[in-house]
């Protein structure tokens, strides 16, 4: 364990934080101009920082003494590698966008699992952004910070991610899910309090390797873009559920058809979920979770055995609904369960994983939490 003072030998000017997120429903819809419904987690990344006057940014993290340095005026995509790519990318996009940030010492700490599909990369970008801006007293709308963080990940890191993760990290509020309409760039805070209904939202990290920039995500996105072009629409959001069968009949590629079917039906599931939550019928959202998982498994083909076993086991243990969440190919599932059955549901998943020879899963508390803020 190390600290800011131990690494940099000086006193910090402040600390900032940005949370991870879990998406309730609306998977792989964000880059199709669709709808998503994430919550921010209590797990977060913090950046303790001090200003420098030499135009150098020095970054380090808890558990290591190594410091990576880069000059702001020589930042270009590819000039910084390894995990420091993310803070470097955020510094780069802020300067490219005209914000007068300066040099800084940045110390990163986290209780957010990496590789679990809980958006640790977006949290790191957002925490870095609010720290670099906060050090100079620059006020920027949270949604704009989110858009800049997405640009940094797209253009500097090289990951073709959508905007959901960054918006959740910046714009969520405690006790709510963020209903984000990407096409309209509008957000609505939807009250989300499972505890009041005697329910728990279990988040289970299945500990399968989560590979987010290995070509699979990009391939799914490209397939959606190809299908939209073939159908003559700007994005798959433009296809109404009532027109889905006609759209599918106009596509010659079976893979593209299945990708389109997932996106269009998933957007409809988000709308149904929000309507049910507004009506106080949270229990009825469970089957939508399960239908979402089946679509992600069969039509979008991004689940792995660990995710499928975890979902099937949770449902067999009495969960009201369960689904994989995040980019896929590893990561986490969520399960909506009666609070009285939460422990036995997780134990059932642990046993199933042991029986299959999988790694031991872990669980996280999924309390809807606030977006990025200053800590001190």
TrEMBL record:
It comes from the Bacteria. The keyword Magnesium applies. Its EC number is 2.7.1.6. GO terms for biological process: galactose metabolic process. Residues 274-354 form the GHMP kinase C-terminal domain. GO terms for cellular component: cytosol. It holds the Pfam family GHMP_kinases_N. Residues 3-50 form the Galactokinase N-terminal domain. SUPFAM superfamilies: GHMP Kinase, C-terminal domain (SSF55060), Ribosomal protein S5 domain 2-like (SSF54211). NCBIfam families: gal_kin. Belongs to the GHMP kinase family. GalK subfamily. PANTHER family: GALACTOKINASE-RELATED, MEVALONATE KINASE/GALACTOKINASE. This is Galactokinase.
């Amino acid at each position: 364990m190390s600290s800011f003072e131990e690494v940099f030998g000086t006193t910090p000017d402040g600390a900032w934080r940005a949370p991870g997120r879990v998406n309730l429903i609306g998977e792989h819809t964000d880059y199709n101009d669709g709808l998503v419904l994430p919550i921010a987690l209590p797990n977060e990344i913090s950046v303790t920082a001090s200003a420098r006057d030499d135009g150098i940014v020095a970054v380090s993290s808890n558990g290591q003494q190594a410091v990576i340095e880069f000059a702001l005026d020589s930042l270009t995509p590819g000039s910084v590698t390894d995990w420091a790519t993310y803070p470097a990318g955020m510094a780069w996009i802020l300067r490219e966008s005209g914000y007068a940030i300066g040099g800084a010492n940045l110390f990163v700490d986290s209780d957010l699992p990496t590789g679990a599909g809980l958006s640790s990369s977006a949290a790191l970008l957002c925490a870095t952004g609010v720290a670099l801006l906060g050090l100079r007293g620059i006020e920027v709308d949270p949604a704009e910070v989110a858009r800049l963080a997405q640009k940094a990940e797209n253009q500097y890191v090289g990951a073709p991610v959508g905007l959901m993760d960054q918006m959740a990290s910046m714009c969520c509020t405690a006790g709510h899910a963020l209903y984000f309409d990407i096409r309209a760039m509008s957000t609505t805070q939807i009250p989300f309090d499972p505890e009041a209904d005697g329910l728990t939202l279990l988040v289970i990290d299945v500990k399968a390797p989560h590979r987010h920039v290995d070509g699979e995500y990009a391939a799914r996105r490209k397939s959606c873009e190809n299908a939209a072009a073939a159908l003559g629409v700007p994005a798959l959001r433009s296809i109404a559920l009532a027109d889905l069968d006609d759209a599918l009949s106009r596509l010659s590629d079976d893979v593209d058809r299945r990708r389109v079917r997932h996106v269009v039906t998933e957007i409809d599931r988000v709308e149904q979920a929000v309507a049910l939550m507004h009506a106080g019928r949270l229990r009825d959202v469970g089957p939508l979770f399960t239908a979402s998982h089946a679509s992600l498994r069969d039509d979008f083909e991004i689940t792995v055995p660990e995710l499928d076993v975890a979902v099937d086991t949770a449902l067999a243990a009495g969960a009201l609904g369960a689904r994989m969440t995040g980019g896929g190919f590893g990561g986490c599932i969520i399960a909506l369960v009666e609070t009285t059955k939460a422990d036995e549901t997780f134990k059932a998943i642990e046993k199933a994983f042991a029986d299959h020879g999988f790694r031991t899963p872990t669980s996280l508390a999924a309390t809807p939490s606030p977006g990025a803020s200053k800590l001190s």
